[in-house]
Design a protein that fits this description.
The chain is mainly beta. It has 2 helices and 10 strands; from the N terminus they run E-H-H-E-E-E-E-E-E-E-E-E. Helix content is about 10%, strand content about 55%. The radius of gyration is 14 Å and the shape is globular.
Length: about 140
């Protein structure tokens, strides 16, 4: 069965529990409040044939780029997020993209999945989960 193609531009429509998630990452109070006010967009380039992906998160405050190949571990510099470096692997779990980030924080990672024109993102760290939902641009 073919995997879904995640390519497209998506704009955030909702988020839940972000402050608690950022606190788990040791993000200071002031920065957490700023981040929780942002309405990020995601630009995703996905080549299903090769597994190459680029996910660009764009905000008015800071942008974050993630460039990787599915199922291949890479060193991820999370400096723009929390100043850490992780060994990261993103792979399929059914039709979901599951990311495992091994580093200073336990049980860290995220899961992306599509439902119609919605892109869901659950971010996990040390038992805390935050969720964002993005709508595909027309």
């Amino acid at each position: 069965m073919a995997k879904p193609n995640y390519s497209g531009t998506f704009h955030m429509v909702s988020q839940d529990n972000m402050d608690a998630y950022l606190a788990t990452l040791d993000i200071n109070f002031a920065l957490r409040k700023i981040v929780c006010l942002l309405k990020p967009s995601k630009q995703v380039e996905h080549d299903p044939a090769t597994g190459a992906m680029k996910i660009r998160t764009i905000t008015t405050f800071k942008n974050f780029d993630m460039d990787f190949t599915l199922a291949k571990e890479f060193t991820e510099d999370l400096g723009p997020v929390d100043g850490r470096v992780c060994q990261t692997t993103v792979d399929w779990e059914g039709d979901k993209l599951v990311c495992v980030q091994r580093g200073e924080k336990a049980d860290r990672g995220w899961t992306h999945w599509l439902e119609g024109n919605l892109l869901h993102l659950e971010m996990r760290c040390e038992g805390i989960t935050a969720k964002q939902v993005f709508k595909k641009a027309d």
